[in-house]
Amino acid sequence: MTHDELLDYDREHLWHPYSSVSNPLPVYGVKSATGVRLRLTDGRELIDGMASWWSVIHGYNHPVLINAIQEQAARLPHVMFGGLTHEPAVQLAKTLVDITPAGLDLVFLSDSGSVSVEVAMKMAIQYYYAAGKRQKHRFLTIRSGYHGDVFHCMSVCDPENGMHQLFSGVLPEYYFADKPECKFSDEWDANDICSLQMLIEQHHNELCAVILEPIVQGAGGMRFYHPQYLRKVRELCNAFDVLLIADEIATGFGRSGKLFACNHADVVPDIMCLGKALTGGTMTLAATIASRKVEEMIASTDPGVFMHGPTFMGNPLACAVAQASIQLLLDSDYLTQIQNIEKQLEQGLAPCRDLDSVADVRVLGAIGVVELKEPVNMAHIQPAFVEKGVWVRPFGRLIYVMPSYCMENGDLQYLCSAICAVIEEEAAG
Ligand SMILES: *Cc1c(COP(=O)(O)O)cnc(C)c1O
Fold it and tell me: Which of 60, 127, 129, 146 is catalytic?
């Protein structure tokens, strides 16, 4: 297929995320990728600032990961998980139990982040069903969250920038606390927890779980909040007999500067969701990891089993490459790499602070965010980034990057200066 044939057919027949085929935005063909560089079908090369939505933590085409896939593909690419098991799944479960906060001991594997959240929510509902508290089947979350695009996940996404209006009448209606305002490195403000505390006090009799993204709110607003907030949520959940679900799909595997964002607060949730970087961005896989207390309660009452079982559950290819990716991460000096990226992003994005069109610049771990005062014009800004040789995909008022941990200083500086330059050019019209 020529470059033009590829893009022409794509434009006529393919849906892209949050897109319209009738009114398409620019789409670029990718031929291959190595390290932090994407090679386009038109021959151009881009420095990738997105790590394919948080997932490609070791860079593209990493030989260790490719090898893990090839070896597993030659042995057993897939087998059903009902009544059967295999070493890749068992090895991965062992690793996940070892590295996640103590007490998270039971691993449910699924195919995507949204499904792992759906699974976590079903676990919480089944937990209180089994406990004989059947009125406790509703959820409490915080505004500005993002938990995925399937129905139950949408119901706990931010009610304004989520899809609540579009699907109202179909989506379950849950409780939303004000978003945390106290920033990650601010002094803790005890008032920040009041809204959530009030809701949990009023509604605990109907609540099965609080679900939130720990420390970093991702696609719902790219915000970093105070670890004390998370500790307070844990205390309130304990006090009012409500489970805590931590959605670490974006933050897991080092992204926020700790292996898991919960580690910033030394908080152990009852259920944790992992996805995105789990396979180093090579295959789709997610995990819901629960405490034994959750499982034992579910098992104690009819039907006595947890009611979920995707066809591709525990896919051996995905498990094998996940194990290889986690091992690669743990064998590396990833915390130092991420600290360095944090420093480079701080320095590189600092000049944006002086631009009139910029509302805020914030960095945590290997995440850099420039929040504008007005939403970007995607049709204009996306080609502007590509012209500069970088892959950055903004949404709304947010221009953000979360590079692979192997990105070198020169590329980080180039990426940041391209962002500053494009913002300045866009503002100038
Ligand atoms: C991406 C994301 C999801 C959804 O994962 P998918 O793999 O896209 O289904 C859920 N929660 C958070 C925090 C995410 O960042």
Answer: 146
The whole-number pLDDT of residue 165 equals 87
Please state whether the predicted TM-score (pTM) of the whole model is above 0.85: yes
**Helices then strands (H, E): number in the chain?**
13, 16
pLDDT in tens, 226-279: 999 999 999 999 999 999 999 999 999 999 999 999 999 999 999 999 999 999
Closest C-alpha among 419, 417, 428 to residue 384: 419
Q: Is 216 in the pocket of ligand 1 (CB under 6 A)?
A: no
Q: Which CATH class is domain 65-331?
A: alpha beta
Ligand 1 nearest-atom number relative to CA 148: 4
CATH topology classification for 3-61+333-428? Aspartate Aminotransferase, domain 1 (3.90.1150)
* Known catalytic membership, residue 247: yes
Look at ligand 1, atom 3, and give the residue with the nearest C-alpha.
148
Angle at 328 between CA 70 and CA 81, to 5 degrees: 55
Whether 276 sits among the annotated catalytic residues: the reply is yes
